[in-house]
Amino acid sequence: MTTEQRPAGPGEDRVPVKVMVVDDHPMWREAVARDLSEAGFEVVATAGDGEQAVRRARATSPDVLVLDLNLPDRPGVEVCRELVGPEATLRVLVLSASGEHADVLEAVKSGATGYLVKSAGPQELLDAVRRTALGDPVFTPGLAGLVLGEYRRLAAEDAPAAENAPAVPKLTERETEVLRLVAKGLGYKQIAERLVISHRTVQNHVQNTLGKLQLHNRVELVRYAIERGLDD
């Protein structure tokens, strides 16, 4: 069995991707956790409700949270908002029975990196978790276009305000290249291949750009790029 590993930072050894599974259905939750473990991920915890999810995620610090939206006592989007912030390294992959557009958009606005419906096959889920760990946006086919379309709509509504916004720090030519590709919906791996640079270099450019623009996550970054027409 191959151990799923996340990229190492400078001076670090490669370590297994740590995953936590949150779902209120015990059989489904344990089945997903088992599939992930057998595929080489390190399942550090599982949870069956929102309060438990927040508490255990903070205790175990997973790299990826596989999160259902329909949870007892606290909806999945609230869990996402509480755990994903400017300083957080956690990435959230929503795994939901709902494919409703409103649910998808709310999840992404709450900080989720990707959204997969439960009709996805086991291999599709494993691939989605791998890509989420790398920072790639992962969506059930058809949903990525929905999310980008919503960003464009919001950008159009906010255009007058954007015109009066203060000047922003100047990005390097390479940071702008990466930002354009992020705005087009490409994942880190695709951007690395397109620009013939490493996946880690792409991540560094995105993090530097977030810092310069004082943005918190890729959701805000994509919206910023679309507001300025960088997705053309």
Structure description:
This protein is an alpha/beta fold. It folds into two domains: 5-140, Response regulator (Rossmann fold); 170-232, Orthogonal Bundle (Arc Repressor Mutant, subunit A), CATH 1.10.10. Helices cover 50% and strands 12% of the residues. The strands form two sheets. It has a five-stranded parallel sheet, sandwiched between helices. A two-stranded antiparallel ribbon has the order 1-2. β3 (18-22), α1 and β4 form a beta-alpha-beta unit. α6 crosses α11 (218-227). The protein is globular and about 50 Å long. The termini are far apart. The modification 4-aspartylphosphate is found at residue 68. It holds the Pfam family Response_reg.
Short description:
With 232 residues, the chain is α/β, with parallel strands linked by helices. The protein is 50% helix and 12% strand.
Task: Note the main attributes of this structure.
232 residues, 11 helices, Rossmann fold, 7 strands, 2 domains, two-stranded antiparallel ribbon
CATH A-level architecture of the largest domain: 3-Layer(aba) Sandwich
At the fold tier of CATH, the topology name of the largest domain is Rossmann fold
Structural class: alpha/beta
State the helix count: 11
Oligomer: single chain
Q: How are helices and strands ordered from N to C?
A: EEEHEHEHEHEHHHHHHH
CATH superfamily annotation of the largest domain: Response regulator
Count the strands? 7
Major beta-sheet overview? 5 strands, parallel
Q: Mean pLDDT, rounded to whole units? A: 82
Radius of gyration: 18 Å
Rough shape?
Answer: globular
Domain Response regulatory: 18-133
Modified residues (4-aspartylphosphate): 68
Keywords: DNA-binding, Phosphoprotein
Domain HTH luxR-type: 164-229
